[in-house]
Amino acid sequence: MSQPVLHVNHLNKVYGKKNENQFHALKDVSFDIESGEFVGIMGPSGAGKTTLLNVISTLDQSSSGTIEIAGTNITAMKQNQLADFRSEQLGFIFQDFNLLENLTVYENIALPLSLKGVSTRHIKPSVMNVAQKLGIEKIIDKYPITISGGQKQRVAAARALVHEPAMILADEPTGALDSKNAKSLMETLVHLNEKLNTSIMLVTHDPLSASYCQRILFIQDGQLYKEIHRNTTRNSFHQEILDVLAEFATSNELE
Ligand SMILES: Nc1ncnc2c1ncn2[C@@H]1O[C@H](COP(=O)(O)OP(=O)(O)OP(=O)(O)O)[C@@H](O)[C@H]1O
Ligand SMILES: [Mg+2]
Question: Which part of the chain is the ABC transporter domain (predicted)?
Fold first, then answer.
């Protein structure tokens, strides 16, 4: 089997310094994401989902344990190396898409490459290639204010993908969307995953969005609680997800 794109091993995250009020937000978390997998992370509010994503995305530091992304141990890296690693190996999709209104679609997609200092003549083929794959080549010279919500999402996805990262990370990307746009964003992610073999890790509260994933890891109180695989239709996977979330609701009532 090929090496996983993400290998998380005995990961711990404690907020606060010694002798302060400490909070153990991640407790001995271990899991892998295989290359080309689409994995969802779910769990109650405060479970540690964003903490996990921030530590994996190198925006925050773990307290112990290791994280390997595409074979590189990021827990051993220095701050300046981390910034380079992040800009090369990771793609991000944010809740509000973060498109810059005074840049065209083309310029928005090109941003990760421009920031890396890639030369203009190398940027164009990469931008046009990813725009074509996402069906937005016709709106490439427009400004975000003049395009639809669905097109904005595809621009955000193109920007996350243009530098060919090892993995895309998304925290609640459908959180601010109506159900139609949420569905269309999830279909875009499925397209990236199935057609372009992009590895995706998605944090979401929304069971319907999660049902588009191949596998869901549930975390509770900073620990892995359960994992389920999608073996059948999306509808029955949706129901399975709702059943696990109902277990959380019941255990909270017992507390
Ligand atoms: N900077 C911090 N300092 C101290 N505690 C923190 C800090 N950030 C988060 N926490 C605590 O860590 C726990 C996990 O927070 P986290 O944001 O990862 O949860 P989450 O699963 O993303 O929740 P939500 O679903 O509400 O977004 C929470 O109890 C939170 O209060
Ligand atoms: Mg969160």
Answer: 6-246
